[in-house]
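Troubleshooting log. The previous run stalled partway through. Resubmitting the same three chains, unchanged.
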Amino acid sequence: MLTLAIDSSTDNLGLALMESGQLRGEFNLSLKRQHSEKLLPLMEEIFELLEIEAKDLDGAAVATGPGSFTGLRIGITTAKMLGRIFAIPVKGIPTLEIMAAGAAGAYRLALLDARRERVYYAFYQQPEADSDDFIKEIYPPAAVRIAELPEVLNDYSQKQITIIGEKKLEVGKVLKASNFSIKYGEPESDLPRAAVLARLGENYLKRGQKDDIYQLKPAYLKKPQAEINWQQKYGSN
Amino acid sequence: MGVEKLKYKDKLKNKNEDIYILALESSCDETAAAVNKNGLEVMANVVSSQVEIHKKFGGVVPEIASRKHLELLLPVIDQALAEAGIKFEDLDAVAATSGPGLVGGLLVTLTAAKTISLALNIPLIGVNHIAGHIYANFIANPEIKKPLLCLTISGGHTDLLYFEDLRGYQILGRTIDDAAGEAFDKISRFLGLGYPGGPAIEKAAQTGNEEAIDFPRADLGKSYNFSFSGLKTSVMNYVNNEKQRGNEINTSDLAASFQKAVVDSLASNLLQAVEEYKVESVVLSGGVAANQRLRSYLEEKLEKYNLKLYYPPLELCTDNAAMIGAVAYYQYLERDFAPLSISADPSLKL
Amino acid sequence: MDKSYSIITDSSAETEEFGRKLAQLIEIPSLILLKGDLGTGKTLITKAAASVFGYQGEVTSPTFNLVQEYSGEKEIIHMDLYRLDRTEELLEIGFEDYLNREAVIFIEWPELALPLLPADFIFINLEKISAEKRKITVRGEGEKSRLLIERLNKEC
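Second attempt completed without errors. Output:
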């Protein structure tokens, strides 16, 4: 089974090929806003280097965000089209899940910069030692003000939490100040690695878990939680 | 890029063979797919419009449009292939609009076209949307004689072009400020007539007197350029002045007079060019080409030159992909292919 | 009491001058809310600021399509929420995505955005005193707006 992973959700442009549990190749390139120019040429290159043709693919996995909406649509469109042309299954996977799945630790807090003193976060728990299950999602992806994270994670203040991703030092500082026990993940787990997406994708697809390519879309984030409503202070004259 | 390096160079066909192109378009608020055979023969032309969704906002909202394009992408492609009765494997090339338009939307079909190109190992063709609108005429009226003059008028463009044949053109003049369609939209909004502005103004003008108010026509000397910004301002000033005087405004008269001023400006440059260039036909394109007053006025004026005025039928006036496929065919013959690294250009010029 | 900065401008030229000064003193990314009745100079200030960021093209009020993007040396996003009725509609137009950009964002008629804003924005109130005269008040939340107000008070 040959699975192609595509991730254009963040500044990292990721492409990987996994063949039945064996990683064939991987690109992770930090490119600001050039995904539209770079994705397909890179895909052509990885196919050529590995002497693979697009029609050899058995499945595709794609990151669904959070991230730049335009970036997300580039990756998702590519996955949809491959799914449609070759009638292969496609699985969309949240970007923060890819990050968390690529790190170690019993409790993992994955972060992406949402700017303006906020982060996108998701919180996961490692599966039982001898199971091949996926990491368990405790809090799904959402946007939050960094200052509010201690409150959000309050139930886990006694556990050791591994923090990965953008703004990890800043968030770590805030959590430490609230007496959380934290650990920082390794730098290579701070971005959604394409190889991890390929691994997750293959595992999901092997279990028959795929998405309807006609419905597949980016995870457009909903209303951020626990923001202050400034209506009273600025709303009237 | 050089054709000799292309992976698909052995598959390329020549003019005497049948060439099938899948064309995609998502530059504004229509998601569209078409299959063209040998350029002007349209085997399928599927358009899914979002106009209703954007109506409420009085204009196209980029993010909403992009989301819709992603949602509609596969359904329109499926329908186009089904109507044409062909499979992906039968395609000789894939084309998509590369600009002008809203980047987020353009990238949906451009990325899809790139993926198809890579997956099927067929050429990718990036097409200028404005050129598409012009070629819509050649689909509808294959008998058009060359050389010709083309006036392309839409919400983003007002260009006067000269075509020796269908492979290339020369730009004689363009707008130095607002496009004609933009002026219609802005005045329509100003008068509270709704969106899109062209049809709204035209409807209001039907019962009005176009001589009622004498709005200025821009005079740019000998050039073939256009200007609508001054006209827009004078309409607004007129309304504000009348309101201040406590006079009621006759919207129909106002719309008719404004429309006539736009028509006059467009016509005067076109007729000047007709005098100078010895052409066999005159062609209108772009959303504003649907304006009946413009058509009837030009037809009347062109009679004395014994020239026929061509314009695309209504279904080809709005954005569609068949027109993109028509341009793509001529680019295919010229081996004018795009690399997979092509990006969307929101302000791509002709 | 919150810190603020106020200025009275006597002409549209002076209002424009304020827009340029504002652009020179803010840090990027920045979120700038412009509140004021029709014709008080919201678009004028945006245009003046955009010119400082290297954008020389046309700047008109995006009432027409809610959002316009200008790219000069810096990315500029210009929104006008006049046509929206509900805060939820802001999410549909990609508000979250815009907040997540390394851009200077100007928002005219910003009331509906208030429930969605991070604690980091500059709020500018424009009041018409006479035909040409405006009272401009700058307030805001977060470190960036505090710094901006400090700089404005020092400079003017």
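Takeaways: Chain A has two domains: 2-95+192-206, 96-189. Chain A has a mean pLDDT of 93.
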